[in-house]
Specification:
The protein is an all-alpha fold. It has one domain: Orthogonal Bundle (MetI-like fold), CATH 1.10.3720.10. Helix content is 70%, strand content 0%. The protein contains 15 helices and no strands. The radius of gyration is 27 Å and the shape is flat. It starts with a helix and ends in a 5-residue tail after the last helix.
């Protein structure tokens, strides 16, 4: 015991005198690049917050590239009241919630059919859904606009008898364009789930619907949570579809309604910056609330099977 005790300090000294690792230029360069990119991405948000806290009179006199003399929340109060943002937030909820639920439901069923069962056109359908992700939405706006003007819709779902200028029309177009991406992601995730679960459910007498809803779907919750975070952000941030397929100002979603803060002869950029920060807050809240599920959904698919 004495010899062992005496030799222990020598081992600690040997460990303590181990030469330091050589400087890794590649790692340092990578970290520097990531820091610079992060600052570039955060600069517009930081500049918008800085501008929104300054009065328009001060920036008109001193310029936007100047030190502040007054910082307050008056622009936020004015943007909320003048822009009637509360009403437009409700309009956005009416569009986002049904669209996200429908997209995830339909995409999960399509991914289930393409990955859990072998049929003639499953690979073709999966490739078709994936290829639709590459199509820019702007190329179909002219025929889509005419189709919306000529598609009759029953009275309970439309106040003008058409698909144009209706919440239903915006929800449907979001479902159509987001379905391919969600099907692609969920199909890749479901491929990591063992097929023995399907066989066990079949032996127990489970129907296709029971296998989907009670066996496979609960296992895809991490991926669904990740997609829900992305889809809420994508649909919430949409500006194009509501701008082209809606004309009634009171029905616009919050992102398109920011145009209401712009005057006819004068543009208060400080007020618009405050409105933009308010509009960006819900997406940040959704991300931080679902951050754990989001990261788990991105990593589990690469470690299973």
């Amino acid at each position: 015991m004495t010899a062992a005790s005496a030799s222990q300090p020598g081992r600690e000294d040997a460990i303590g005198t181990r030469p330091p690792k050589p400087f890794d230029r590649r790692r340092a360069g990578l970290h520097t690049f990531l820091i610079v990119i992060s600052l570039v991405w955060l600069f517009p948000l930081g500049w918008a917050i800085y501008t929104s806290l300054r009065p328009i009179a001060e920036t008109t006199q001193d310029g936007y590239f100047s030190l502040p003399r007054t910082l307050n929340l008056n622009n936020y109060v004015d943007a909320w009241n003048q822009g009637e943002l509360a009403r437009y937030f409700l309009n956005t909820i009416v569009i986002v919630i049904p669209a996200v639920i429908a997209v995830l439901f339909l995409a999960s069923m399509m991914a289930f059919a393409c990955t859990r069962y072998s049929w003639r056109f499953n690979l073709t359908m999966l490739m078709l859904f994936t290829a639709l992700n590459l199509m820019p939405p702007q190329i179909i706006i002219t025929p889509l606009f005419r189709m919306y003007l000529n598609t009759p819709v029953p009275a309970p779902l439309s106040d003008n008898g058409l698909l144009f200028d209706q919440y239903l029309g915006i929800v449907l177009i979001h479902i159509a364009f987001q379905l391919g991406f969600c099907t692609f992601v969920l199909s890749n995730y479901m491929k990591t789930i063992s097929r023995e679960l399907n066989e066990a459910a079949l032996v127990d007498g489970a129907s296709v619907w029971t296998t989907y809803s009670r066996v496979i779907l609960p296992l895809t919750k991490p991926a669904l949570a990740a997609l829900a975070t992305l889809e809420v952000t994508f649909i919430y941030n949409d500006f194009f579809w509501a701008l082209t397929l809606m004309t009634t100002g009171g029905k616009l979603p919050i992102t398109t309604a920011l145009n209401n803060l712009k005057g006819q002869f004068f543009i208060n950029n400080n007020l618009i910056a405050a409105g933009a920060v308010i509009v960006a807050l819900p997406t940040l809240i959704v991300y931080f609330v679902l951050q754990k599920q989001f990261i788990r959904g991105l990593t589990l698919g690469s470690t299973k099977g």
